[in-house]
């Protein structure tokens, strides 16, 4: 072997902005790293020193229960210091921009910013304006990469593989960052993905992402190894085009009756928060096929893996010069 040949670094990214921008190998590295981190969560002392001396800032412009708490627990399990910024009580209320807030967090010597924002592309914009790492915790309709990773991690844990699996994603595909991250991740790892929704909630051209689309729920369920049920985001129905809740439940809601026609061991997933009686019945949400709460636990391990690798990455200075700045 040529001793002078440079070994390819395992992780080369400053930020985690979406699964679209990762290779199959990057995704597998994160999933493989999450495995031993999951084991730490069951120890009597649930802490390792991997991020000792590092500071993680959670900057959430939208409500969150699972993602924010999960990132906080993940960072603390790795011995990082964690600061939570609630934008409602921060200088965001005085008109400070996302980029200025980010640059001030950097000036306060934080190492990683975890950002959730209602605008697609917000995390990517912030990442260009700070030299520290940025993790996208959900940006508008674009991506929610750690949710995609934890969904895939959960499936791999339950079924032992991703390649060749039939995975159906049912619900508000049009407005779903979770759907997009799942589609990018699952297809890169060789799963066959079907999306299912009322036609107005299936974005035109979605097949170009390598998925099949249907508005027939029985078809989506018939051959599925797993189903990922999305929340109906009625708050995004600005034009009043969504079906009524009762109508949606009748035609697309995942009930025990519908599940009887699916594979006996079908895995039932949901990123949360769940709306019982709208997209999923309580019987299914709390039933034997449901892994919804396992997803939440696995989210900690996956986020530990992400924080670990970003803290290892050689940080590349990316802040643009003043005349290149967008805002
Ligand atoms: N799945 C998810 O993103 O949940 P939260 O909005 O509670 O973070």
List keywords for this structure.
single chain; 327 residues; Rossmann fold; five-stranded parallel beta sheet; four-stranded parallel beta sheet; 11 helices; 14% strand; globular; binds phosphoric acid mono(formamide)ester
Give structural notes.
The protein has about 325 residues and is an alpha/beta fold. It has two domains: about 140 residues, 3-Layer(aba) Sandwich (Rossmann fold); about 150 residues, Aspartate/ornithine carbamoyltransferase (Rossmann fold). Helices cover about 35% and strands about 15% of the residues. The protein is built from eleven helices and nine strands. It has a five-stranded parallel sheet. Strands 2-1-3-4 form a four-stranded parallel sheet, sandwiched between helices. The longest helix is centred in the C-terminal third of the chain and has 21 residues. The chain is globular and about 55 Å long. The C terminus is likely disordered. The site of phosphoric acid mono(formamide)ester (CP) has 10 residues, from helix 2.
